[in-house]
Structure formats: C-alpha cells, structure tokens
Amino acid sequence: MKSIFTFLCITFACIFSQAQSATVEIPAHLPEFQLIKIKGEGIFDSKDIAKNKKTLLGYVSPECIHCLLSLELINHNMELLKDVNIIFVTEYDQSEFEAKVKPIAPKLFEAKNVEILRDSEYEMPEKLKLTTLPTYFLFDKKGTTETMKRGSIEVVQIFNHLK
User: Fold this and answer.
1) Do the Cβ atoms of 22 and 16 come closer than 8 Å?
2) 65-76 and 94-101 are packed helices; what angle lies between their axes, rounded to 10 degrees?
3) Looking at residue 156, what is its pLDDT?
4) Peptide bond into 103 cis (omega under 30)
C-alpha cells in the first residue's frame, strides 16, 4: 500500500512540475489581421500600422476589471507612449466598449496614435496565443515581439522597454 501511495505521489509531483516548467508560447511577430474599427469607421488592416515605430497591442475586455485597470494606467501614461502605435482589440461592440472605457480612459479615444478594434470573429486569441485577459504585446519597429505582459499591473513593465 505504501508503494502505491509513493508511486502516486511521485507521479503527481512529476506532472505538476512539468506543468509549471512549461514555457508560454507567444508569437514571434505581429500577426496579420483585418479588424473593424471601433474608433472611427471601416476596417483596419495590420498593413496600416505606421512603420518605424514600436507597436503596443493589447487584447482587452470592458467587462474585465484587470483590463479596465490596465487601460486606466495606459491612459495616465500616454506621454510615454506618444511615439508608439497603440492598438486595443476587443470582442465587444463600440457602444459596450465606449460605455465602460471612455469614462476612465478618455485619452485613448482622443489620441491619434491609438486604434481601437473589434475582433468579431475571435481570430486574434488564436493568432496571439492568448490564455488570459488583459494581455499586452510590445513589438519592435520591425514587428518582432519584444515583450509580452499579462495583467493590470504588469502592463507598467512595458514602459521600461520604451526608454
């Protein structure tokens, strides 16, 4: 009986240690996409992203408190991000997104370097290999992934890559 219990303990320990040591897969480059504009009208194509600038892409939800906190933090730090392409992607429609986000992050709707897009077909979670919200990616000037951060507080770590 002791040997069965020991065997089970070792088996579970191996399984859990492998699960914790597994690396998180993230895209190496900014994926191609075409999404509906929430801020403005029409379709935004990834080819429309201004060249020779870093790009911050965030997948967020207006129903997620951590997303709202991260958007508020970004709103308060827009001066640091003035030379960065900023793209927010959500699955929510314009009225739902604006109703929750505009009161806490109005600068995101005013800034010329910010695009807010709707992923109505839910294609971006697969392309970005998302596992949680919010998730932010910082891509360098060539579209290569520089860093990825998840969560409301972790987003401030992206600012270190902009100096």
Assistant:
1) no
2) 70
3) 87
4) no
Q: What CATH topology corresponds to 26-162?
A: Glutaredoxin (3.40.30)
Instruction: Look up residue 83 and give its DSSP letter.
Output: T
Domain edges within the chain: 26-162
Cβ contact 55:49 at 8 Å: yes
The two tokens of residue 28 are: 């190496």
DSSP state of 92: S
Query: Exposed (0-12), middle (13-18) or buried (19+): which is 153, by Cβ within 10 Å?
Result: exposed
| pLDDT tier for residue 25 given thresholds of 50, 70 and 90 | confident
Which residues, including other chains, have CB under 8 Å from residue 124's CB and lie 6 or more apart?
Answer: 31, 33, 35, 59, 89, 130
Q: Is the pLDDT of residue 153 over 90?
A: no
pTM of the model: 0.85
Please check the confidence at residue 128 and state whether its pLDDT lies above 60: yes
Q: First vs last Cα of the chain: how many Å apart? A: 60
3-class SS letters over 4-32: HHHHHHHHHHHHHHHHHHCCCCCCCECCC
